[in-house]
């Protein structure tokens, strides 16, 4: 479907149609991009089992919100008591500053068209906290490592439009704020030029940006959408492209090799030992991962017109975001923008588990194995979705791009 946007301006005409505009929702099960993370997680767990480690260690990510009452210390008798550095709200400044926040946004005009190249200024009471960036080719900008608890103001200026100024913004620790109300108005007396764009062109650009997302700069995170409000549906071609991109990524192949080695040490499945057994386990792990990604990330989403990606919420209370993450393996966004039962995700997991019965040893086959793998996969998808909502964005360097 082609979206023709029209905007006329006398001078400085431009044309851009390369970024998504619309809608958050749920998404897919354990996204194919997360399958690699799943392999590494399984690798760590399996290694611990092989080495008979009795007490696993679970990493915890906690949001620091320290509210401390400052108690005056004892000073020398002949000196007056020195003032303590306390914020306006009585919060220990060092505790608040230990956790930063982030602001991102997309610069649009009143018609919803992208406005790249805009100058975006972050104003703060302290000159040291003021920053300036330029909106990129997708009209996106980002300010990270911001101090919670102090007021910020954002101004945007670009030739041909009236300046735009936000309301005062006070961030909470670890907050990831999307500014979705930026709409620039044309300057008085300006006419317009025509800007053409299509959803397919926008989707291509969005996928290009998603393919740059890697956790810690290493692990593919291609199936996560962080600008959910501006997302557009993927074409069938793009769904298959993403699936193949994840499946053939070098990190994916390394994960397969690592899992095969761990399964070899644990003597599962019931293949022989030695080089032949390692090759069989490598092939089984690769086949299982590839079939899961292809079925759940491309074939079924194309047939059922569903989006296989995870749509990051990022805003709202912790409970709201947790409910969003927990629902994502079971409720997805359809290509029509509506919420749907995630048959693509669940069907992909079930189909991959059923196909494994054709190459696993006879002793490992059976209906119990199929449903067991499906249950484990469902649990892993839930954990992965929670990690995607609360943890992963902090460790994806490409999200910190500023100019």
Describe this structure in words.
Helices cover 35% and strands 17% of the residues. It is α+β, with helices and mostly antiparallel strands and 403 residues long. Strands 4, 5, 7, 8 and 9 form a five-stranded antiparallel β-sheet that branches. The chain has a three-stranded mixed β-sheet with strand order 6-2-10, with no helix packed on it. The chain has a two-stranded antiparallel ribbon with strand order 1-12. A hairpin with a 3-residue loop joins strand 13 (214-215) and strand 14. Helix 4 (236-247) packs antiparallel against helix 6 (274-304) and helix 7 runs antiparallel to helix 9 (367-390). The longest helix is centred in the C-terminal third of the chain and has 31 residues, at 274-304.
